Amino acid sequence: MQCYYKAVFRPCNKLNCIAYLRAMAKEVVLSGIRPTGFLHLGNYFGAMRNYVRMQDEYNCYFFVANWHSLTTHPDTKELRNSVNRVVAENIACGLDPEKVALYVQSDVPEIAELYLYLNTMAYKGELEKTTTFKEKVRLNPDNVNAGLLTYPVLMAADILIHRAVKVPVGKDQEQHLEMARNFADRFNHRYGNVLPLPQAFNYGGELVKILSLDGNGKMSKSENQMNTLYLADTDELIGKKIMKAKTDQGPSTPNSAKPDYIENLFTLMRLVSGADVVGKFEDDFNASSEGHCIIRYGDMKKQLAADMIEFIKPIRAKAADIQENKDLLHKITRQGAEKARASASETLKLVRSAIGMNES
Ligand code: ADP
Ligand code: TRP
């Protein structure tokens, strides 16, 4: 097995020997999703699809980031429902709660203590420069709270509390991962090698970004809802949204580069349609030019809608069933929190001892 120990740790001391032993076991994987609305195709292809593939190979921790959602969604009336829906949708997509730890962030208080220590590793200037922070300030200038500023620190604590090394996320989270590495590295320099440096992960290397159907920004839970495809959308709604997706009059020269919004339709098609279907529309696109337009976006969208409906239908049905079963959801998240707390308290022991914050 490839050992990440040499790449991320400095010369050996007692603490990193423990880490070394862990590295010899299965690598640790962690990821989280905020319960700020319905899950969509960006969440699925950027994150959940990888979770499902990773669950057999790695020691996996997946969680619902309900503390994070408070930084932008202070109204908590719908929070419990949203948490349940995210858990149900993850299982409906193929996560097996017996194989992974599937838990809710607020059930693991150890994360909050690590967040506190890591806050002393994070500088105001770098937090203010974070792209997601600047974007959220722009969208909501009246709610620039300290939790929003230190969002990347809490995210680093989520990851480092299990000493995870692989983090399956979409492209929008790349900068947060870089920050998590910086905080861990500073901690290790200051107090000794306890925390391995995590990396964003996607099978195939490239991180995924699914654009909104009008080509304006990424698909997202809480914005631009008529241009986002949700795993809970009805067949009719899926068809309607795709048929309204932005296109144009077609390419002006053969083999031209595709505009973002057209590339996005092809990306979606590659994800849910057969290779022959995609190939046909690719060929039509490449053979088209001004006055000789072979590609018919209307037909392409009809085909994409039909394939997307087939893709989403079973996930929607299974998630709805699970969501009804509150006892099952409770049992799954209890069990997940137990597994997560066992791992988290192990890390916290090492962290406290490295800092010199031992029990008196
Ligand atoms: P949202 O941005 O929709 O609120 P989250 O921030 O909770 O979703 O993201 C959960 C996961 O889904 C993250 O790993 C994130 O990178 C991924 N993700 C979210 N939107 C997209 C998208 N449009 N394309 C690819 N991945 C995405
Ligand atoms: N910030 C992530 C997002 O918006 C959600 C998240 C919180 C997360 N903590 C995490 C993702 C830890 C990966 C690892 O998508």
What does this 3D model show about the protein?
The chain is mainly alpha-helical. It folds into 2 domains: 4-208 and 325-355, HUPs (Rossmann fold), CATH 3.40.50.620; 233-318, Orthogonal Bundle (Tyrosyl-Transfer RNA Synthetase). 55% of the residues lie in helices and 6% in strands. It contains 16 helices and 5 strands. It has helices spanning 5-8, 14-24, 41-54, 66-70, 79-92, 110-119, 124-129, 131-139, 146-149, 151-160, 174-191, 235-243, 260-272, 275-287, 297-324, 326-355; strands spanning 28-33, 59-64, 101-104, 166-168, 199-201. Strands 1-2-3 form a 3-stranded parallel sheet. It has a two-stranded parallel sheet with strand order 4-5. Helix 5 crosses helix 15, helix 6 (110-119) packs across helix 10 (151-160) and helix 13 packs across helix 15 (297-324). It is globular. The model is unreliable at 1-11 (pLDDT under 50). Residues 33-34, 36, 42-43, 46-47, 169-170, 172-173, 208-210, 218-221 line the site of adenosine-5'-diphosphate (ADP). Adenosine-5'-diphosphate binds next to helix 3.
List the helices and strands and how they pair.
Blueprint lengths: L4 H4 L5 H11 L3 E6 L7 H14 L4 E6 L1 H5 L8 H14 L8 E4 L5 H10 L4 H6 L1 H9 L6 H4 L1 H10 L5 E3 L5 H18 L7 E3 L33 H9 L16 H13 L2 H13 L9 H28 L1 H30 L5
Parallel strand pairs: 1-2, 2-3, 4-5
Helix pairs in contact: 5-15, 6-10, 6-16, 10-11, 12-15, 13-15
The structure holds adenosine-5'-diphosphate and tryptophan.
